[in-house]
Amino acid sequence: MKIDFFGDSITDAFRNREATNTNDRFGCGFVAQLAAKLFAQNPLGYEIKNAGIGGNRIVDLYARIKTDVWNFKPDVLNILVGINDVWHEFAVGNGVDLKRWERMYREMIEDTRERLPNVKIIICEPFVGHGFITNDEYEKFLEIREYAAVAKKLAEEYGLYFLPLQEKISSAEEKYGEGVVLVDGVHPTLFGASIIAEEWWKLFNGKILL
After folding, report:
1. Distance (Å, rounded) from C-alpha 109 to C-alpha 58?
2. What pLDDT, on a 0 to 100 scale, did the predictor assign at position 210?
3. What is the C-alpha to C-alpha distance for residues 176 and 185, in angstroms, rounded to an integer?
4. Does the first or last residue of the chain, that is N or C, have fewer Cβ atoms within 10 Å of its Cβ?
């Protein structure tokens, strides 16, 4: 089974983009943790691709979807995107507004299903928390909730898998405090990555492998 993790820096997690057969090709985030789980389950049964690139927005994902997704021909495609579309707007004036974001996401889904009709797509809920990056502009960062609602709507509309993450991230942050789950309010710590990995693992084994 071929699994493609497609997204921004949360997926990327400092992966070595030059590596092909070494573990650092998976980065140090939730993809690496899931690769370990998947290989433990079946060391010969999975081909895993970390196709995350830090700073990417939905438009950046679509610009490279042919090389990083369609050419790979995954059986399972995991997509996590959204925070940069919000953040980059008020930080540098280069975000992607919600209407355009939905339109691009739709095109990405429809074009992928046209080329890969049997692919199983997991849409992850984009999330935000408290940290040194987000605290001063937290109300602006909360716009990600609207993007998350659209992501869920699209998953339901197209009959895709939706992975909710915000509630788990927020609950853990409330329990353990700022900086324990997310380094800076955006990027997960190892513990935060383990939350994402665990939720993904439950979805994968409970629904996709059935």
Report:
1. 12
2. 61
3. 14
4. C
